[in-house]
Amino acid sequence: MSIFSIYPPREELISRTYEIDINLYEKLEKLSNEKYDASINKLVNTCLEYLINNQKLDLYKRDKNEITVPRTFLIRKSLYNGIVELKKEYNISLNKIINIALFNALSDENLS
Known about the structure:
52% helix; 2 strands; Arc Repressor Mutant; two-stranded antiparallel sheet; alpha+beta; globular
């Protein structure tokens, strides 16, 4: 086992645009800029991998005046395929799946 095996193998990236709750995106920005040596794209991919592995698709309460913003991410192909499967299985839009993934991971960071 290589010391570098902690990193996921290189794979095709798929560019997709999703409507993201602004407060979740701002928290990701803060993590990327202040805490972790990772881009927002890498953080999003990590959130998606976590969601696919634990399949915790609990809906969360949004503020009444919550704003969503379109954001484009480069998602690893295997993760994209995984969230498409979750979409089929749970009949939830990809926008909601992405936001749930972000919310779950930020909750575990005590930032939700």
